[in-house]
Amino acid sequence: MSKKNKDKLKMHWTDPLNPLKYIKPIKNTVKHELNKKKFRDERQTIINDPKSSTQEKQRAKAQLMRQKRGSKTIAEVQAKAKSDMKSRAEKKHADWKSMKKGDMSKADFIKKYPNSQTAKKAKKTGWKPKKKKSFLEKTFENV
């Protein structure tokens, strides 16, 4: 980068609508993204290379994880994952309760949560949903 361009980056730019407010100059995001991609590719080659030591592989994995989480700390990432997991479990439990009450059919529950214990048991026992009668079958049932 030339000296002229470096000086431009150091300058403070004012907002045209509010001349008292300063704006930070915009970085070259395309170049930044290319550097991030290059960094990722280099770390992946280290991880996949059979000649690299386990310590190098662990360091490369840790660096990739650091890049992935951005400016967040590990504790913040873990807290978000924990809250997401909790909310998913609460929704699943509410749907299970509604299935038990009869508001939701068992087939719908299994379709929505294919990895649930209910779905696994149904698959194991060979449970099949009951076929719903059409409107015409219900009306002419007693005739």
What brief labels describe this structure?
143 residues; mainly alpha; two-stranded antiparallel ribbon; elongated
Molecular structure report:
Helices cover 65% and strands 3% of the residues. The protein is mainly α and 143 residues long. The protein has a domain at 11-104. It has a two-stranded antiparallel ribbon. Strand 1 (13-14) and strand 2 (22-23) form a beta hairpin. Helix 2 (29-48) runs antiparallel to helix 3.
Strand content: under 5%
Helix vs. strand class: mainly alpha
How far apart lie the N and C ends?
89 Å
**Helix share of residues?**
55-70%
Mean pLDDT: 81
Major β-sheet annotation: 2 strands, antiparallel
Which geometry do the CA atoms define?
A: elongated
Extended strand count:
2
Taking all Cα atoms into account, the compactness measure Rg is 29 Å
Describe the structure in brief.
With 143 residues, this protein is mainly α. It is 65% helix and 3% strand.
Outline the secondary-structure elements.
Layout (H helix, E strand, L loop, with lengths): L2 H8 L2 E2 L7 E2 L5 H20 L5 H16 L4 H28 L4 H7 L4 H9 L9 H5 L4
Antiparallel strand pairs: 1-2
Helix pairs in contact: 2-3
